[in-house]
Amino acid sequence: MSCMLTYAVRNLPASSAWAARGFARSLSCSPPLQAAVQPKSKKTLAKTGVKNVVVVEGVRIPFLQSGTTYADLMPHDLARAALQGLLNRTSVPRDVVDYIVYGTVIQEVKTSNVAREAALGAGFSDKTPAHTVTMACISSNQAMTTGLGMIAAGQCDVVVAGGVELMSDVPIRHSRKMRKTMLTLNRAKTLGQKLSLIAKIRPDYFAPELPAVAEFSTSETMGHSADRLAAAFAISRLEQDEYALRSHTLAKKAQEGGMLTDVVPFKVPGKETVTKDNGIRPSSLEQMGKLKPAFVKPYGTVTAANSSFLTDGASAVLLMSEEKALALGYKPKAYLRDFMYVSQDPKDQLLLGPTYATPKVLEKAGLTMADIDVFEFHEAFAGQILANLKAMDSDWFAQNYMGRKSKVGAPPLEKFNTWGGSLSLGHPFGATGCRLVITAAHRLKKEGGQYGLVAACAAGGQGHAMLVELYPQ
């Protein structure tokens, strides 16, 4: 596939915006942060007979690089802080919440249902059900659409959805031989049986099993997949570095300009109060260019500078039926509208979820790319984002891989991730989806748009896209 895609992309018409070399040069240019304006008037995506589900509010604790301030905490501590931040900001009575659902990826075995533990810790009633979902990097997307479905079905009126990840402390297991021996030892009844089992232990039994961000089905790390994808779409190291620099530069402007209002302070026990993300670090192309390839050595193009970093963080959003929100006196931020989940080959198309999900969700809603005012895509790697943008703008790819007559088109950069993205803000696997949705809602209000498109890739070759509609102002 790589050779075929490389040939096709390199031979796209010269008029294609993505084929032009000047594309990468424009990445570092950022649009000015605008004052709030009134949205353009378009049709609403409300459907007859279907409940309107609204986002009342969304928050997140600061996203921090793993191994920093959150290092001594547990995942439910972060999730609890996000829930408490949501409660503080909205003043929603705890007993009004019908259900809580959280997304996570690498689970702490002591709190496997982290949603329940975090909810209890945040003071929610023990009568409020809570469950945890996992779908790799779109886990909190799944949490939100689970809540959306429960409200639309009339099962609930108020749902809190969120996500959490703590990469500072991940489960490290004994080898399988050692685990088997220890479990058998636990069942041994006599001293002789126990000594006999202990005598069978060999030095190699003590070798730990370290977790890896790799596909179980292919044994390939996501970084390797990103490198191959970048090569398939002929995306250079320089283009990836320029896009990553764009992300950090825009995130820095948004942070300093007070745009990241979804961030709530978190007083870390025994440490300082954390108030902002700590991974935003605009560098220079010269410095970025000095880094060695992180995965495919020595010729790969994916480096630490153009990849999202291991991140600790948590997020939470308050979802309600529109009727319930208005009855409680809230002014919602946005409607959650159509959404779509997709799956592809986890080897060759692991990171192309946005490309496949976007045209499907637009067609479902009767919209085109031109109708979208705000794009918020998850940035796993700069190469992954650029590959998706090229694929979306390629008739050849649409016809040969997607079974479509023509391309859906690529998002214009002036509408795309203009407050930074996962490359700069961070990517706590289970929490990013909520950040994307609430950022889209805030940008729609600030920029006077009506429709936002959120999209993300995920491990296993899966992907997600969702349409967010600004609530009438």
TrEMBL record:
Q: Where in the cell is it found?
A: Endoplasmic reticulum; Mitochondrion inner membrane; Mitochondrion outer membrane
User: CDD domains recorded for this chain?
Assistant: thiolase (cd00751)
Q: Which residues form the Thiolase N-terminal domain?
A: 53-323
What is the recorded name of this protein? Answer: Trifunctional enzyme subunit beta, mitochondrial
Q: One GO cellular component term, please give it.
A: mitochondrial fatty acid beta-oxidation multienzyme complex
Q: Which organism is it from?
A: Strigops habroptila (Kakapo)
> Any idea which UniProt keywords this protein has?
Acetylation, Acyltransferase, Endoplasmic reticulum, Fatty acid metabolism, Lipid metabolism, Membrane, Mitochondrion, Mitochondrion inner membrane, Mitochondrion outer membrane, Transferase, Transit peptide
Q: Which family does it belong to?
A: Belongs to the thiolase-like superfamily. Thiolase family.
Entries under InterPro entries matching the protein: Thiolase, Thiolase-like, Thiolase_acyl_enz_int_AS, Thiolase_AS, Thiolase_C, Thiolase_CS, Thiolase_N
Q: Where is the Thiolase C-terminal domain?
A: 330-469
Gene3D superfamilies associated with the record = 3.40.47.10
Top enzyme class, one word, equals: transferase
What does the record note on quaternary structure?
Answer: Heterotetramer of 2 alpha/HADHA and 2 beta/HADHB subunits; forms the mitochondrial trifunctional enzyme. Also purified as higher order heterooligomers including a 4 alpha/HADHA and 4 beta/HADHB heterooligomer which physiological significance remains unclear. The mitochondrial trifunctional enzyme interacts with MTLN. Interacts with RSAD2/viperin.
